[in-house]
Design goal:
Radius of gyration: 12 Å
Strand order of the largest sheet: 1-2
Shape: globular
Order of helices and strands: HHEEHH
Distance between the termini: 24 Å
Largest sheet: 2 strands, antiparallel
InterPro entries: DUF3046
Number of domains: 1
Low-confidence stretches: none
Protein name: DUF3046 domain-containing protein
Amino acid sequence: MRRSEFDRAVSEEFGAQAPVLTADLVLSSAGGRTAAQALGAGVPPREVWLALCAETDVPLNRRYGAGRQEPRRR
């Protein structure tokens, strides 16, 4: 997962709450850091996304493949 995919996934899943969750919610599985802090410390976006999903009880079927754009049609 790229950082842009992380940002897209968080925005799509949490909507207007996304900035607050990434800045304020402490993720125990990300070393007791917020998503923003974990990303800043170099934790891969995929790990941060999964930690955020676990902390907020996002269903498994919405965790994998999140943030990817539809392939371009040629």
